[in-house]
Design goal:
Blueprint: E1 3-7, E2 13-18, E3 21-35, E4 44-55, E5 60-69, E6 73-77, E7 80-84, E8 89-95, E9 98-99, E10 102-112, E11 115-128, E12 133-142, E13 146-149, E14 156-159, E15 164-170, E16 173-187, E17 190-203
Antiparallel strand pairs: 1-3, 2-3, 3-4, 4-5, 5-8, 6-7, 7-10, 8-9, 8-10, 10-11, 11-12, 12-15, 13-14, 14-16, 15-16, 16-17
């Protein structure tokens, strides 16, 4: 399944035994977890606890998993990369010792062509360990200018750095920048206009 859960000693357990047979084990089970590399996403490790049940019949665990990322994870995306930072919080529902899609809260660096492009906290993302895709919509801070020349070369549209923008990431790749954007319009002599563009959408793929 791509996920290896190793349960450790400790935790708080409620155990029921009927007719000399273990019938119920419920509680918090400490674990270590290795999530195998998938696609462009490298392997990473989690530590935390699973609150749920252990079946002596199936030898499997089920319940709600919470954990913290133990290492920075750098996900290459063409010439871009997403860094999910150590300490990020992962949650998932586990059935038969296998988690479903992870929900992730994490601090994020998004780098384009070797330059930090945007940065901030993502409160809710999803990670599908079967396909290796992170998906999220979040408000991040633009850390570098976005510049786009018109086809005739006369004008340049500039989105200024340190602007708070909405971003949309699909399958670990930045697709859109939205929101109220601090921008300027330039000609060969310099800036002609500066202002706020509300309800804006920038298709990042067309900037390449």
């Amino acid at each position: 399944a791509g996920v290896t859960l190793t349960f450790k000693e400790g935790g708080q357990l409620d155990v029921a035994v009927t007719e000399n047979r273990l019938t119920r084990v419920h509680g918090d089970f400490p674990y270590e977890c290795n999530v195998a590399a998938q696609g462009s996403v490298p392997a990473f490790n989690l530590q935390g606890s699973l609150n749920g049940d252990y079946s002596d019949e199936t030898k499997k665990f089920s319940g709600a998993l919470t954990g913290q990322l133990q290492n920075n994870v750098v996900i290459p995306v063409n010439s871009d990369s997403i860094t999910v930072k150590s300490g990020s919080r992962f949650t998932a529902t586990v059935a038969n010792s296998v988690p479903e899609t992870f929900t992730v809260a994490f601090d994020c660096d998004y780098t384009r062509a070797g330059t930090l492009f945007c940065q901030g906290h993502v409160e809710t993302a999803t990670y599908n360990f079967r396909t290796g895709a992170f998906d999220f919509i979040a408000d991040l801070t633009l850390k570098t200018k976005i510049e786009k020349q018109t086809d005739d070369g006369k004008w340049k549209f500039v989105v200024n750095e340190n602007t708070q923008v909405g971003v949309k990431v699909e399958r670990s790749e930045l697709k859109l920048i939205t929101g109220s954007i601090d921008f300027g319009i330039h000609d060969a002599a310099g800036e002609l206009f500066h202002g706020q563009l509300t309800n804006a959408t920038v298709d990042v793929q067309r900037l390449k």
